[in-house]
User: What shape does this take?
Amino acid sequence: MSIEHKITTQKVNFKVFRFNADEDYLPYYENYDMEVTSEEVVLDILNRIKWDHDGSFSYRRSCRHGICGTCAIKVNGRSTLACKESMNDMVELFGNELVIEPLSTKRAVKDMIIDKGDFWEKHAAVTPYLVADIDENPESENLVSPEDAEKLDEADLCIQCGACHYACPAVAINEDFFGPAAFAAAYRFSADVRDNSTSRLADVNEEKQGVWDCVKCFECAEACPKEINPIGKITKLHQMAFQEGIAKNNVAVRHAVGFKKSIVKNGVLDEGGLVLYSEGPAIVKHIPVAFKMFTKGKIVPPWGITKSENLDEIQKLVKSSSTVKF
Amino acid sequence: MEKLRYALFTGCTAKQSTPEQMMSTVAVAEKLGIELVELTEASCCGASHLQDYDDFLSLVLNARNIAYAEKHGLTMVTICNTCQLNTAMTKHRLDNNEELKAKVNEKLAEVGLEYKGTSNVTHFLYAIIDDFGLDKLKEMVVTPLSQFNIAPFYGCHNIRPSELQNETHKTAENPYNPTSLDDLIIACGGETVDYEEKNKCCGFHVELQAPHTAAVLTGNAIAGAMDGNADWMVTPCPLCHLKLDTQTAHASKAIGREVELPVLHMQQMVGLALGCTPAELGLNHHLAKVDFV
Assistant: This one.
C-alpha cells in the first residue's frame, strides 16, 4: 500500500525586522506575503526573502542540519533554530501572521545578525573546558564508564546557538548574569569525572551573575532546540554547591535552606520567618510593604500559622531522607 | 454529571499571605458543586527552592503529599502554579523511574505510607476547564463581566515546561500562545487583553536575591497589561499575585513608570461571575484596591 504525500500551501504574512547599523538610525519592519509550502522550514523563508525580495536581507546559516546553531532567530517571540523549525508547525502555533526577528533586537547588527559577544564572553567566563592533568604518554586510554558519562545529562550536546540565552528574562535585565547556556557548559565540565577545576563552581555561585539569580521561568527549557533542559543543569549546579561545600552564607542560599528549617518546624512554610531567616537584619527594607500587607490581613503572625497534621511524620522523613548538610 | 471531588493541596500561601485565595477557592467550588477534601497533612512542596538544596528530600515530601491524595482515591488539585510544577514533576519522575520510586517508598514506609502513582495532579484552573467544562460554567454565569477588559497573567509554572504540564492537562497548553485563562475570561463574559508579557515571568522566585531583576519583570508585566487597556489582571498563581499586587512601588521605580492594577486570583474572577459577594471572595485583602465591585 502506498501512502500519498500531498504538499499543501498556505498564505502567510511575514513581518520582518530590518536594521542596518551602518545606515539606519532605528529598526523597522518590512512585510512580505508568501505562499508557504508544507515542506518548508523557517530557513527556506529567510532564503526566499533574500533571493526573491531583497538581496540585502542578512542572516546567518551554515550547516542546515540543526548542528551548527548559527541560524537561531525568533518567530513571534519564540526562539527558533530556523533550519529545524517547520513552517507548518509555526503556522499551527501562531497563525498566518508571523513576526521574524533576530534573537536579540537590542544586539542587532544587520537584520537577523546579532553581536553575540556577550554570549561568548559569558561562555568563556565559566571555564568551558576540561581541567585535568593529562599524561602525555598514557599507557592506556582514559576511560569514562557509561554511568559516569550519563552524569553529563546530555549537556555536551549544546550547539551554542544562543536560543536559551536570549530567551532568558534575567539575561535581558542583568548584564552580569551568565545565563542558561553558560551554566549548561559549566555543568557539562563540572559533572565530568575527569575534571579537576577548583574555581568553576565558585564562579557560577557568585552573587549577581551566578545560578542563584535564575528566575526559574523555564523559558530556556522551552527554547532549547536540542532539548538540553538548561534549567535542569542550573538546578544541578545549585545542588553541587551544597554537595561540594562551596555554597556561601548569602541571602539566596539561606532562602533555599530556610525551606527545610521551616518544613521541620511547621510542615508548611512560615513565609515571614523564611524572609527573616534569608535576609537577617536587612529585613527592615521590607517593612513598608509588610505593614501594608498586615493592614490588609495578608500577614499571619508566627503563632497563627496552621501546622501540617501528622507533623511528626514530616519531621521523621526530613531526618531520615536529608542528603545534604549546610 | 457525577459530582467532582478532589483532594485539595492548598500550598502554604493560600493559608498565609493570600487568604483571599483560599476563601475564593472554597466559594467557587461550592457554587460549582465541586467537593474539595483538604489535604491537611500535606507539607510545603519546596517551592522550587528546597529542590535546589536537597533533591531527594523534596521528592520524598512531595511523594508523601500525593500519597495522601491516593489514600482518598482522588485526583490532587493544586491552587498554586509552583505547587503544581513541583508536585507534577515529582509524579513524572517517580512514575518513570522504578528505582527512584522504590527508594522514595523505602522512606515513606518508615511512616506507613506508599506512593503508588494512582492519583493524578491538576491545577484548579484546568479542573474547571477540563473536568467541569467551560460551556457548563458559561451557563452558570449570573453576573457577566462584560464591562471589563481583563488581562490574563498565566505564570510560568502552569505552562512551562510544556512537556510536563501537558501530561496533566487534557487540552494541551501552548507556552507561547496559551489560551486556558483567556478562555476562562471569555466564559465569564469578560474581554481578554492580549499583551506580550502575559506568559512571561513575574520575578517572584528571585525577589530576595535579585530584587532589581524581579522588580523589572513585575513592572513590565503590569505595564503591558495597562498598555493593553486592561481594567484589571487575573492570575491562577498566588505567587504571581503577590508579586503583582504587593510590589508595585519597587516595580514602578525599577521601570521608571507608575504601574498598578488590581490583580485578581482566577477563583475571584470566576466567583464574581457566579454571583459570589466581594466579602466571600476576600476582595478587601488586596493592596491594589479593587474598587470596581
